[in-house]
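Next comes the chain:
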Amino acid sequence: MEKKWEEMSADEKREELFAKFLSPEGIEFASPEAEKAYKERATRIKDAIEMKKPDRVPVFPFVGFFPALYAGLTPQDVMYDYDKCSMVFKKYVLDFEPDAHLGTFVAAPGKLHEILDYKLYVWPGHGVAPEHSYQCIEGEYMTANEYDALIQDPSNFFATTYLPRVFGAFEPFQHLTPLTNITEMYAGFTAASFIAYGLPPVQEALKKLMEAGSEALKWIGVVGACHAEMTAAGFPNFFGAGCKVPFDTLGDTLRGTKGIMLDMYRQPAKLLEALEAMTPIMIKMGASTAKMNGNPIVFIPLHKGADGFLSDEQFKTFYWPYMRKLIMGLIDEGCVPFPWAEGGYNTRLKIIRDVPKGKVLYGFDTTDMAKAKEILGDVACIGGNMPIDLLSIGTPQQVTDCAKKLIDTCAKGGGYIMMSGAVIDQAKAENIKAMIDATKEYGVYK
């Protein structure tokens, strides 16, 4: 009798998710050669993560809107025309043949953003030029005196306070009462909880949500088919889910940088309590989506823990404890946490090595990779950090030389994946090709 998911150990869950990653369900491969190539690529990534020696170093350029620009289109084009979006990402994968891809991860549906009146970002053709990427509009979307509301009922706080501030379509939801008010009590108690849903502005907001849902289904129908086609052609999607470290969840999109920096001094106890409350939410966010997609790798972009953002003491107090709880919670659910350290993490390396061996993949941007290999090399796989500026303005020979140096520095004994240091939008096609080709040539293990 098969074990239920909740009865499995962390290692059993991990093996089940990796089994689905290695042999994706519902996929009819384009040919026996494509199936063989897929298994080789997926196995290469798995072996590297588990700090084994694969046949060679895997290569994964972290592309954003590069496929659109490479095909002669703009980011705006692919955010609003889903067929074009599918076309350019397929062209990129088939032309460059990386070991894994992100699919259409970056190209979210622009029309959905417009329907919901999204205020947290501007996007190509809507606040920034059509050929440029997103820009975050950071603000104080949670005030300093709202910690208790967040801590006591995060779901209700998001539904009635945070979301109405970042989505214009959600503004009427500030009138809603908590769904937990609906109990078994008779008479007017339950009915009173539904009054707000009869208000015309709330009903209009619900119609907007339905419209957004229809647009999301239209989008996923096209791009989901694109992802399946790339899998059938032999190319795995690199990760299956994403979530954030609690400090970044609060600091990026709720309190803002200024707000959370002040809170560390003015109300540290409340901040710590909120970080604790957000941790299981982030674990569930990553683990549930990874399980649904049959891919254990969970992307975790790291923002405000970078060198110079926090003191060592602040990092050890407010950032790392909850980052580690997130990592361990994801591991317990069979996932592979993939923290991506944007900026430099040179002063954090000794702290973040406190993870189980072979269970975590750390990606790096500007961190000293020799130092990362020295400190983390016996506990975790590392990835990075082909410089974005080199890919943008360098030459193929310079990219090749950099790839060789990274392989010489990081690949000894396994546990290394060649990646770009950040998301690639504007870069020279010949440099992306040089990065991939050099890794395939020089990254072979003897």
Summary: The radius of gyration is 23 Å.
